[in-house]
Amino acid sequence: MSRLLLKGGRVVDPSQGIDATLDVLLADGKVEKLGARLAARGALVIDADGLAVCPGFIDIHTHLREPGREDKETIASGTRAAAAGGFTAVCAMPNTEPVNDTAGITRAIVEKARAEGVVRVYPIGAITRGQKGEELAEYGDLQEAGCVAVSDDGKPVASARMMRRALEYAKAFGLVVIDHCEEETLAEKTCMNEGPVATLLGLRGAPAAGEAIMVERDVLLAELTGGRVHIAHLSAAASVDAVRRGKARGVRVTAEATPHHLFLTDAVVRETGYDTSTKMNPPLRSETDRRAVVEGLRNGTIDCIATDHAPHTVDDKNVEYDQAAFGIVGLETAVPLCLDRLVGAGLVELPQLVALFSTNPARVLGLPGGTLLPGSPADVTLLDLAKRRTVDAARFLSRSRNTPFGGFPLRGWPALTIVAGRVAFQDGRRA
Fold this sequence. Notes:
Layout lengths: L2 E11 L4 E10 L2 E6 L8 E4 L4 E4 L1 E6 L12 H10 L2 E6 L10 H14 L3 E4 L15 H7 L3 E3 L8 H13 L3 E4 L4 H4 L4 E2 L2 H6 L3 E2 L1 H18 L3 E3 L5 H12 L4 E5 L1 H5 L3 H5 L15 H12 L5 E2 L8 H4 L16 H10 L6 H16 L14 E11 L18 E11 L2 E5 L2 E2 L1
Parallel strand pairs: 1-4, 1-5, 6-7, 7-8, 9-10, 10-13, 11-12, 13-14, 14-15
Antiparallel strand pairs: 1-2, 2-3, 5-16, 16-17, 17-18, 18-19
């Protein structure tokens, strides 16, 4: 039986209300004990003095690209990047090629992750067959094969009737419906946020109202059906308000935000001279929207921080701005960005950040983990809050480099990532 003893770290576990200097004993893939000055004969001892010891971080919005676009990312490379970023588990979005809309594709992803992944991979199945918005996928088959939620991410569910049916059908299996909220007729042929910057640059913009309209619709449909809806990559002030009001009425709605929407605005498109690493969907919004998303995170309206890790090849991005692919990588930058710009800036306390990355994602999707309670999975993220490093895309373990954060000096980085009691990443070296 493998045993690992983490000695003298600052244990931060929001699920138990713990923030104290303790030892953590891991044995046979489970958390065995927390306590002061623990002794464990035969255990490998890791000195955690000066580190924060947290329940393993979970990214509930990752694009691993496999099957079909292994030139952008693979399960092997994506999970190595996740481990380097402090994540012990990722939830893989279904917009692969072919789309993950059948049990066979789900099982193939699960088997590949078991063979080549260094962190846990939880597949998310498609809401509709082929993500075409015309016919619901077989949720029972998807769940039985390993899917933990359903989403057509990358494409909104345009039909309100289809979204209603999805919420009703998913409710029968206890699944969450994750929606990419975008009113397509307002976003057609757009490439950034609608506003003064887009006008100045001569680019066609998508209004924030296009997102908020669909968020309002989804909240109302969740209220109507009693189903559970999760709003992906929320980016607009009006969207935050819609989720807040829905929660106040008791609607089963949750939401996530990404680091790029928390820390960047559409102004960066101009400042970087049309750098296509600033192109994502939803687009970077105004400063008013950004501040509203940060505040929504602080007051609990937004439940999780997710990366929306979207790797692309150089050719996908090295074109005119309006022709470039949407999306950026985020697995290796999300945690240090939030440690530096939320915790370091005094906007969020460390226990709340841990909840946003760990306890809350586990709760939202009903996943194992998110806690260091004895008997829970031995998935642990250790953080060095004092470590200073500059983001260097050349060092990424992801196959892709499309990030707007290159050159950012940040304080606070993952130091050690443990999955099922096994070290998956330590000090820049992967297991």
